[in-house]
């Protein structure tokens, strides 16, 4: 039995599919299947039920899964301990970012460049995804830290969090649209075609929670992961964009006018998150410390 076989087994269970697991592990599917079969032969038990569409652990596989995860975590702790005694930083740090997080206001690229200059033996893996999926990846151990948008929903108590930005959620309409004044009540948006970030993003979560509290489901006509595209669609008169607050210059550049959403006002928050209940690698700890200083966040109770 080899550690890599245990890692393969855990990944197949988490993905519930050999094809997705092979892609995540950067392996050919036949090779992955062969390694799992070899592990089953060595243990003398079938670990997985292989269905037509999904793969699930057998009763024995479920029992083995917990021990496999413990073994993999133990090897990571051993490597981290050796590195700490040697005073070396090496390995890889996995960082998640929401779309648009690396801006002039947040010089994430600069922090990563400085970290790389100081620790050239450490690789940095960047993932851009929705906040919801990155939180799930953080929980699985696939990410070491992430910069996400908060929805306001409760979050795992094992997540550490620094809020690094809070901004109002506003509406953006075409400059020529004079239907609304400087403000618009949330309830007024009930029947309007809206342009918004996709599900799983922090701003979308905040907006949907507020709409639910007001007793309606928003009419989302268009979705896009990039805020600039939302503004471009609004400028063409395709709906009302729900976006983070803009300066007058930013709004003018996109050909839109900002209308404040009131009763209630909503605020989006950007946060740096990490697993506080698990020992991170030395490299991840150092990068986390540098990002916390650079982003100037404030530690808050966990919420998503």
Automatic annotation (TrEMBL):
<protein>
    <submittedName>
        <fullName>Putative transcriptional regulator LysR family protein</fullName>
    </submittedName>
</protein>
<dbReference type="InterPro" id="IPR005119">
    <property type="entry name" value="LysR_subst-bd"/>
</dbReference>
<keyword id="KW-0010">Activator</keyword>
<keyword id="KW-0238">DNA-binding</keyword>
<keyword id="KW-0804">Transcription</keyword>
<dbReference type="GO" id="GO:0003700">
    <property type="term" value="F:DNA-binding transcription factor activity"/>
</dbReference>
<comment type="similarity">
    <text>Belongs to the LysR transcriptional regulatory family.</text>
</comment>
<feature type="domain" description="HTH lysR-type">
    <location>
        <begin position="1"/>
        <end position="58"/>
    </location>
</feature>
<dbReference type="Pfam" id="PF03466">
    <property type="entry name" value="LysR_substrate"/>
</dbReference>
<keyword id="KW-0805">Transcription regulation</keyword>
<dbReference type="InterPro" id="IPR036390">
    <property type="entry name" value="WH_DNA-bd_sf"/>
</dbReference>
<dbReference type="Pfam" id="PF00126">
    <property type="entry name" value="HTH_1"/>
</dbReference>
<dbReference type="GO" id="GO:0032993">
    <property type="term" value="C:protein-DNA complex"/>
</dbReference>
<dbReference type="InterPro" id="IPR036388">
    <property type="entry name" value="WH-like_DNA-bd_sf"/>
</dbReference>
<dbReference type="GO" id="GO:0003677">
    <property type="term" value="F:DNA binding"/>
</dbReference>
<dbReference type="InterPro" id="IPR000847">
    <property type="entry name" value="LysR_HTH_N"/>
</dbReference>
């Amino acid at each position: 039995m080899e550690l890599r076989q245990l890692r393969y087994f855990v990944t197949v269970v988490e993905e519930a599919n050999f094809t997705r697991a092979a892609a995540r592990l950067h392996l050919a599917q036949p090779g992955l299947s062969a390694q799992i079969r070899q592990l089953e032969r060595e243990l003398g038990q079938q670990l997985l039920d292989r269905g037509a569409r999904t793969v699930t652990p057998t009763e024995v596989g479920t029992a083995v899964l917990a021990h496999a995860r413990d073994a993999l975590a133990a090897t990571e702790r051993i490597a981290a301990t050796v590195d700490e005694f040697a005073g070396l930083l090496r390995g890889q740090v996995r960082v998640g970012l929401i779309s648009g997080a690396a801006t002039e206001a947040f010089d994430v690229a600069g922090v990563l460049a400085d970290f790389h200059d100081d620790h050239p033996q450490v690789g940095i893996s960047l993932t851009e995804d929705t906040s919801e999926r990155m939180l799930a990846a953080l929980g699985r151990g696939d990410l070491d830290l992430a910069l996400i948008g908060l929805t306001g929903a409760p979050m795992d108590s094992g997540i550490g969090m620094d809020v690094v930005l809070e901004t109002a959620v506003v509406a953006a309409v075409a400059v020529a649209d004079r239907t609304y004044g400087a403000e618009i009540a949330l309830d007024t948006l009930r029947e309007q075609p809206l342009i918004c970030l996709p599900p799983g993003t922090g701003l979308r979560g905040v907006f949907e929670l507020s709409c639910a509290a007001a007793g309606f489901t928003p009419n989302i006509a268009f979705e896009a992961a990039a805020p600039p595209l939302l503004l471009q669609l609004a400028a063409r008169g395709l709906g009302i964009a729900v976006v983070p607050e803009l300066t007058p210059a930013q709004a003018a550049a996109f050909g839109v006018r900002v209308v404040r959403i009131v009763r209630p006002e909503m605020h989006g928050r950007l946060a740096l998150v990490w697993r506080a209940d698990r020992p991170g690698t030395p490299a991840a700890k150092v990068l986390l410390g540098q990002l916390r200083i650079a982003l100037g966040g404030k530690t808050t109770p966990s919420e998503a």
